[in-house]
Amino acid sequence: xxxxxxxxxxxxxxxxxxxxxxxxxxxxxxxxxxxxxxxxxxxxxxxxxxxxxxxxxxxxxxxxxxxxxxxxxxxxxxxxxxxxxxxxxxxxxxxxxxxxxxxxxxxxxxxxxxxxxxxxxxxxxxxxxxxxxxxxxxxxxxxxxxxxxxxxxxxxxxxxxxxxxxxxxxxxxxxxxxxxxxxxxxxxxxxxxxxxxxxxxxxxxxxxxxxxxxxxxxxxxxxxxxxxxxxxxxxxxxxxxxxxxxxxxxxxxxxxxxxxxxxxxxxxxxxxxxxxxxxxxxxxxxxxxxxxxxxxxxxxxxxxxxxxxxxxxxx
Length: 315
Ligand SMILES: NC(=O)c1ccc[n+]([C@@H]2O[C@H](COP(=O)([O-])OP(=O)(O)OC[C@H]3O[C@@H](n4cnc5c(N)ncnc54)[C@H](OP(=O)(O)O)[C@@H]3O)[C@@H](O)[C@H]2O)c1
Hints:
alpha/beta; two-stranded antiparallel ribbon; TIM Barrel; binds NADP nicotinamide-adenine-dinucleotide phosphate; disordered C terminus; globular; 11 strands
């Protein structure tokens, strides 16, 4: 395993992290095994959230680490807050957000209780709350840090400007954002560059585009999107053969090769898939090949002439 710095925190984390969104009560046993297997494969960085299966993910992660006898200080635990639990129907779960100090502090207490730990290493507002000034959110995060309940703050799904606003009041260790060969907005909007400016790590959610980039899954989409995904998968297949690796490894290596660090949060509880992800940290693509994949995925050549002044979403 390779280890990288989590922003400017001085904390080292594995170059690939385990995303724990799929840990839930009905798959508790394999989920716990997966946490142990990930640790044995050298993965020390685990990402969860209070909303994942309404807290079950946090509970199972905490239990799995304890039952495997993994010392608390050998792992880096990241969780998230700010999405209000709402009803049981996931379709309505993400209607409202709250990053006000009272809500944040109560959420943090609840997460610590479910995880069964004294402190969270990385606490991340899950999405922006338009009704709370960033200075207030920052003060709450700072209080949690002073009380020893969190070590560092990061953000999730923030835009570049939202990062600037919050980081005016508190240093941020990381941004968690959707990022993969099939979702390159962080590169195209300058979000990745802002992370570099601020010394923040970029944590990529759905780094395998929910499994599509492994060549073994497809999403229910319109035709044009399926065609685009098929094109990227076909190119990955050809490169994977040349390099003697899997499509998943190639897709993860493509992310990790960027400076930052850029850390994929791989969403699997399958032992083989965890081992595959862990082995991807040693894969380095030729510079030409890295760009070739980018060109195929964005659907157009790299610019030679003047770049547009304003980013226009083309897909
Ligand atoms: N901040 C946010 O808003 C946000 C949103 C979404 C996710 N996240 C974070 O990101 C993490 C990952 O998200 P995700 O689950 O969408 O990511 P993902 O890793 O892109 O997709 C997971 C899917 O890929 C499959 N897979 C993984 N490795 C594979 C391999 N080697 N071969 C074949 N299939 C493979 C998994 O299947 P198997 O189960 O069969 O392995 C699963 O279906 C989450 O757990 C969470 O921590 C954050």
